[in-house]
Description:
The structure holds three protein chains of three kinds. Chain B is an alpha+beta fold.
Amino acid sequence: MTLPEYNFAYLDEQTKRMIRRAILKGIAIPGYQVPFASREMPMPYGWGTGGVQVTAAILGPDDVLKVIDQGADDTTNAVSIRAFFAKTANVATTTKTADATVIQTRHRIPEAPLSAGQVIVYQVPIPEPLRFLEPRETETRVMHGLEEYGLIHVKLYEDIAQHGHIATTYAYPVKVEDRYVMDPSPIPKFDNPKMNGSPALQLFGAGREKRIYALPPFTNVVSLDFEDHPFEVQKFKQPCALCNATGVYLDEVVTDDRGGRMYVCSDTDHCETRREEGHHGAGLPISGAQTAKEDAA
Amino acid sequence: MYVAVKGGEAAIANAHRLLADRRRGDRDVPALTLAQITGQLALAVDRVMAEGSLYDPDLAAMAVRQSRGDMIEAIFLLRAYRTTLARFGNSRPIDTAKMRIERRVSATYKDIPGGQLLGPTFDYTHRLIDPAMAGDEPVDEPLRRAREDERRAPRVTDILNDEGLIERDVLSDEEPGDLTRDPTAFPADRDVRLQALARGDEGFLLSLGYSTQRGYGRTHPFVGEIRIGLVDVEIDVPELGFAVSLGSVRVTECQMVSQFTGGGEEGAKFTRGYGLVFGQSERKAMAMSLVDRALRAHEFDEQRLAPAQDEEFVLAHCDNVQATGFVEHLKLPHYVDFQAELDLLRTLNTAKAKNDEMREAAE
Amino acid sequence: MSSPILSVSNLERRYGDFIGCTDISFDVWPGEVVAIVGESGSGKTTLLNCISGRLERSSGSIRYNMRDGRFPDLADLSEAERRFLMRTDWGFVHQNPADGLRMRVSAGANVGERLMAIGDRHYGEIRDTATEWLGRVEIAGDRIDDKPVAFSGGMRQRLQIARNLVTRPRLIFMDEPTGGLDVSVQARVLDLLRGLVSDLGLAVVIVTHDLAVARLLSQRMIVMKSGRIVETGLTDRVLDDPHHPYTQLLVASILES
């Protein structure tokens, strides 16, 4: 019997060409979901197979790759994907946003602004922004084709009617170049404004759902809203407890079982860079009693 | 001072080391050989080949061993290998009429040319755990019929077809679709549907097939014929000008004779449901043929109300590698999105508390 | 206006050998209510579905007088134009309100959907318009955030009507709009419909097997049998002095029952 062998960078060159064609089409029609013949990958569907295929198709030997999950370079799945490419493509890897040429991400956009020449690859679980309003692919494709997007505003209307707010906090739908409504992947809506006019190339890969879409540099990306209920991003009351950063997305860390919480940067590279630069946060967790006092104030 | 958790890399390496340890188990017990797995857990190997859609018993056995017997994990391993393989060519369609039959049963005719043949079946065994399974008792050699005994065994559906009582199979020279090479577009054609079902999860198809029997898209099925055996795989070699055999594969084929239709010029005819699976898996082939027929509802102007008749539903959800990945991805960190939801919930509740306070004050 | 809003000529719909409807020609004028009556199986619903673009015709022409003055055959419009027409200039009231409503979103969103579909992006204004329309169909404003599943049959039907009228359409198709309602509720819905139709100057094509509904709402009547028109005329004339034996039978059976 023959023992299995795997190709360099896992995907064969034919497959990479097929994926690149889909990417080019996506770039030519920003926000349009291009069907592509997604391959079976050696990691499970839903764990970044779309992003991995896109990254595999665009990666060259000189690229420097950064992989984040939830903003962090050291979450297990990010580690696993980075190791996959270090092994199969033998590329340099980094945790520094500024040093990376390709950044594969799940659920976040780095805090440091991306620059021209960088590519950010998003892992996408459900690429269809209309899916939970209309489960049928045959129908949603017609809706995109004819720009029939009333239904998505029905959802936003309903949020406001029921909750007083638009209750979508992540995977918040956007309109691209005033044409296609697009799912930005499950990033918090905090990150939505970073997509607008970014000088970096943004690619989106959904492996299980077999779709690729793209935002070329400097694309106009607008989060859907109402004139009298404009889109707003989350605001945090306190700065990062480690690096004192404000205006960044924070993770809530439960520090004890008595209600103690602290808030730290979700973007670990951003946090570390700031600390290296000499920024210091309050450091210690807010105790349960203090949290309660603050809330009462 | 709080320090963010680090060390994903080391944790992963250690976890995999522990996995390898558990997979091997007690070192005093000899490791499983591939021959043991292919020989003694043959149906597990068959299922992995069928749903992994790659016919290679040794690789499938390795996958079964590597996955510690987790079938879907083994299927996944085989699939991820299959996708890297270069395509050298397409075989000619296999001809199940020329199958070297090991088992063949029909529920529609008592006797058929070529005869009924029970073969290696669990049917009519009493499901009592056999104490012999705890040891290694000698097993009798099977009885074999003489080679010349093998008669031609025409397919039961061909017999019905000769009488004009069943819809004609449509012959086509069109290249069949391949959902592993092209994104599936809906509505899909039957070739792509059959491919999806052949790779689909046995349990999912079993439940769907079962649901059609319980009234969710009835098809009034009869097992025209199930046959299991070896068929030759041939490939055309242009340089030679004729087809050469690459070897043979074991397949299970089920032809379901279903709800008749029509009455117009052609007269009423039974309709077909088709199932074909690598290896020996009657359950899967039968379930597949039920679902295939249910998915053809629109061809016969039947109302499509049941899940088994809903092409987008069935095709989008029958693949267990996709399903397990997406279900299991929920254990990946989602704390960024969860944080966003937490914030919103707190905001909503603060707003409510304020409203309640104001209302109380007003009262 | 000197031309009809909808003009149907030589329309035919076949299902294989079976004739759904054939040899159908008639015009609908702006502000006019035309009732299509017949027993079940007479082809009236097939006809309604064909002219409202919900079912493909086998042959014939259906022309519509657009707001911009064009008078094209519907088949010559692009899919996008047809769908736009359906959600702005036309309405369709189903017999079963659940077919025409989103049962799991609020009444306000049901009424507001068409406004959002044509680009309204001001929540407060959409809500005000929805409230106004709920009022016009006699649904209390404080029910605006309730879902139709919590509504009675009559309320659902009135909500469906409001949802259709919010974009000020010019032509409404109705398929047995009171067919699923209790007799006591029917009267109220019919009364409301009659008021709205005359206030808004709507053209309506209504399919019904109920001659009383036809008499109350329509000015003109088309009687169908076995897929063909057997008689047309002013509603009062047809009902008081039916010419065709089949119409005579229909009218007589109503009087007897």
